[in-house]
Design brief:
Layout lengths: L3 H16 L11 H15 L2 H15 L19 H7 L1 H23 L10
Helix pairs in contact: 1-2, 1-5, 2-3
């Protein structure tokens, strides 16, 4: 089973970023442990889907696509097209994808684990 403490801590950090009314790009420091967990899980599972997810996370947070969007005086961000909105939402979308992955990783092993039997003493 993966380290539930690490997954839980990063999930809490990502959740705090998603529920915050203002989250700027430099607040997304949780992308580092997020990426480490995804890469570790990809190496552990040796599954191409995990490798693709880890690579997507690295791509989202290591490229400067967000900074290529129009910004500055005159509020140009209010006039973005659909592609620009998708790029602007890449950090929150990556956060949501991570939370879904964290839920699957930490909840699924418990759901498939054999039921514990307890001994009842009279």
């Amino acid at each position: 089973m993966p380290n539930a403490t690490a997954w839980g801590a990063v999930a809490c950090g990502v959740t705090s970023l998603l529920v915050s009314p203002i989250t700027w790009t430099h607040h997304w420091v949780w992308n580092v442990p997020m990426t480490v967990l995804l890469v570790h899980e990809a190496l552990r599972r040796r599954d191409p889907r995990w490798a693709l997810g880890a690579a997507a996370c690295v791509l989202v947070f290591c490229c400067d696509a967000v900074w290529s969007l129009p910004h500055g005086a005159g509020r140009p961000e209010l006039h973005e097209n659909a592609g620009q909105i998708l790029v602007a939402a890449s950090y929150p979308l990556a956060g949501l994808a991570f939370l879904a992955t964290a839920a699957a990783v930490t909840v699924r092993p418990r759901a498939t684990a054999p039921a514990e039997t307890s001994t009842v003493y009279p």
